[in-house]
Amino acid sequence: MHGTGDARPTPVGVPWATAWEAALYGPRGFFTAGAGPADHFRTAVHAAPDVLARALVRLARDLGRSRLLDLGAGRGELLTAVSVLPEAAGLALHAADVVPRPAALPAAIGWSTGLEPVPGGAFDDALVVAWELLDDVPCPVLEVDDDGHARTVLVDPGTGRETLGTPPAPPDAAWCARWWPLADAEPGDRAEVGLPRDAVWAAVVARAGVTPHGADVLAVDYHHGRDDRPPTGTLTGFRAGRAVPPVPDGRCDVTAHVALDAVAAAGEAAGAVRTRLTDQRTALLELGVAHGMHGAEGPAPAAGTAGGPELLRALARRSAVAELLDPGALGGFGWLLQHVPGVAGRTPG
Questions:
Q1: What is the pLDDT of residues 289-301, one digit of tens each?
Q2: Residue 82 belongs to what H/E stretch?
Q3: Cβ(310)–Cβ(253) under 8 Å?
Q4: H helix or E strand, kind and range, residue 288
Q5: Nearest residue to 191 (alpha-carbon basis) of 211, 218, 172
Q6: 3-state per-residue secondary structure call for 202-254
Q7: What does the alpha-carbon distance between residue 97 and residue 253 come to, in Å, rounded to a whole number?
């Protein structure tokens, strides 16, 4: 049992979802203050933005989309990489995150501070990308007590010390019954209730569904499925490039893997169709990443010749691609792609 001690202590602290929200998005939160997440952890976008940019442009073209909308865009790294690609000419670009527009963002990229202010037109005929967005949506954490009952985990925001509080709210209990059952769990087993993540995704799908041409929506994240939920959960922290205990004091990222199967069902309930859930390695291979599309493979200039700088760039690119495709790391990310019909494409009745 996490932080409960040998005897059952008096519940203290606040629910994890409350502390998590303040720690990430409050006035002095991890994502709203400082230089941004790139200083603390390495995502696929930070590892190889140019490689991913080309892959997403190809995906947008294959889907026949004229826009790219990046939700949870950090400081705009991904769309900045897209904006310089010749093959991206004609694609309208828009990004959104919780911070004001970054000073260095190219003028061609639209920006919204927050998801709600994103204009409806940015969703229309777009490939909408949520890259490692949902894992940073705070959610309730439950733990099974010594009597076999699920209870809400409380946390002291300043120390990270945990105690167990009340039974879960009915909606949280219902979500767990469907997606992360705890009925036969052992004391100390946990669940991270994905209901808030489902709600964010359903809202994205709903926004796309009221546009004339609809959108294709892509969520990419650490994930697990109903048959392989980690029994003690995945809640963790990151600071300065290292995993650290998840203390919700605003000084580290607090994150948990995403139940993308539940997210997919929420998207379908909101109007999405043609769901595909695969892994990043498979998706990027299909988009040509490992077949010379990005110069990742093929002959490199010989060392000691005029091609020396090109050799270094080729080696760096190969290393980045290998990281993106590694099934035990970034290549194991889940890719959830759903089609959202627009108003113009719906059959009356």
A1: 974 444 443 444 4
A2: helix 77-83
A3: no
A4: none
A5: 172
A6: HHHHHHHHCCCCCEEEEEEECECCHHHCCCCCCCEEEECCEEECCCCCCCCEE
A7: 15
Backbone angles phi, psi at 94, to 5 degrees: -145, 140
Which tokens in the block code for residue 138?
Answer: 């705070």
Rounded CA-CA distance 106/189 in Å is 47
Looking at residue 7, its amino acid is A
* 3-class SS of residue 14: strand
How far, in Å, CA of 331 to CA of 154, rounded? 34
> Which residues in the chain land under pLDDT 70?
1-9, 34-44, 46-47, 291-316, 345-349
CA within 13 Å, CB half, 216: 19
Tokens coding 104: 């260095």
Contact criterion met (CB below 8 Å) for 343 and 210: yes
The helix/strand count (H/E) of the chain reads as: 10, 15
Q: What is the CA radius of gyration of the chain?
A: 21
Contacts of 142 (CB under 8 A, 6+ apart): 150, 151, 152, 153, 168, 172, 176, 182, 190, 191, 192, 193
Q: Are strands 334-340 and 215-221 parallel, antiparallel or unpaired?
A: antiparallel
In 10 A of CB 276, how many CB atoms?
Answer: 12
Cβ neighbours for 273, distance < 8 A, ≥ 6 positions apart: 338, 339, 340, 341
Which residues make Cβ contacts (< 8 Å) with residue 309, sequence separation at least 6? none
pLDDT tens digits for range 200-250 = 999 999 999 999 999 999 999 999 999 999 999 999 998 887 889 999 999
10 Å CB burial of residue 227 (0-12, 13-18, 19+) is exposed
Q: What is the DSSP letter of 310?
A: H
Distances (CA, A) of 340 to 19, 57, 229, 245: 34, 19, 28, 38
